[in-house]
Amino acid sequence: MLLAGLSAWLAVRLSIFFITYSTTVTAEAIAIVATYFLGFLMGTFALPARFVRGAPPESRFPGKYGRVAVVLFSISALFLVLRIYDLLFVRGLWEIGDIQATRAEDLAQIEGRTTGGISFISGLGYSIAVPVFVFTIAFQRFLSKRLYVTGFLVFSIYCAYVFFSGSRYLLIGPLTFAIIAYAFANRGIKLSRGKLLALVAICGALFWFFTMGSLSRDVKFGAADSAEALAIAPYRQLFSADPWFQSWFQRQNDAVQAIFWGWVNYAWYVTHGAYEFQKLVDFSDPTVHSYGVAQFSMVFYFLRVMGLPLADDSVWVAQLPNAGLYNTFFGPVYTDFGWIGGGIYMFIVGITVQYCWSWARRGGDGSLLFYPFLASMVFNMFMNNLIQNGNGVPIMALTATVIVLVKSFNHLQGLGRLGNALKPAGFSKPAFKQP
Questions:
Q1: Which of 44, 145, 175, 294 makes an SS bond possible with 316, Cβ 3.0 to 4.6 Å?
Q2: Structural domain count of the chain
Q3: Does a structural domain hold residue 371?
Q4: What's the average pLDDT block by block, 10 residues per block, for the chain (435 residues)?
Q5: 435 in a domain, yes or no?
């Protein structure tokens, strides 16, 4: 997945060959990434085969999945309804009527770490829709058609929230999880003509969603259309287009400009992290490390609330040359652990991913649910850190919650069958009904 992600990154970067970033990647930054890359690969080869021998025990009771699905769908729907209510009425989208203004209010709340009860509770729990959707895809063969459709309807509520909140990666990431879960559930991706058309339609809708979101953000920076957005890109997004492209772009109609600017903006979104990583290496103090706070800031926040004397976000935020921009997966790793320490961390990540992948291949429930997140994290390493961003920590915690529920149902069903086996011969139900 790491090589696939690198190949995808290179393909996207080549598609905007007429764009020049204001930063040049140096040999030092390449050497740091190469160290991380090597550490990860060594981790994937370090796991002995004996750790994944034997059949996973979770597959003993396939009837559990329908019962688990009812519980998970109910919990997800509750949190999502609360989250949409929070967006519309607590954070004021219904009154403000503008997604970007609502996002600005969200950022103000995040920076101040102040929020209301509904915002706090729904913010913690609504991301459970992501592992629940992965559950629906991964165990579709055990679900009735009604439950399978219900799983998609619940995820549609999540998509509606993401659309109206304007958070792009909160939708793109989970769809990647679902594709990986589908590949495991069906032993590969085999698309019929209808599924292929549906996939093209989904990709088109996502591109439209991304483009419209970008144009609405451009307005906030004073650009009335795509041509003006390209003109201010050197100041806002720190890249410039070659003169021949700017000349050609100016001669196109509004629709063509919107399509091309939408792709350029998407390609910048995918590729700018590598150049921001270079700026991080140049700007930050290599002797100052945050030891996990950059990637797991939410975890450290709750630990501080509980009274533990831990470092706050100011340590790693002060190391950033530009706040609010991605610097690949490796940027937060470098901020947390430095060059050599980051290589050791990536070695541990490699072992974890390989272990989970090995068990997912054998059908382990927990690995089938957790590996799609890890695989997407690896695929996106050259763009973004899915632990730090994209609700990564909540999704990991909620995925673990879903795994515990699945295993609990497995345990309860096993106890029920054990109880039936221990009934004495001739045992029967009472002849009368309980009042």
A1: 294
A2: 1
A3: yes
A4: 88 93 92 95 80 52 79 91 82 58 50 60 86 89 89 88 72 79 75 78 80 76 82 85 92 89 89 93 92 90 85 87 85 94 95 88 83 91 89 90 84 49 40 36
A5: no
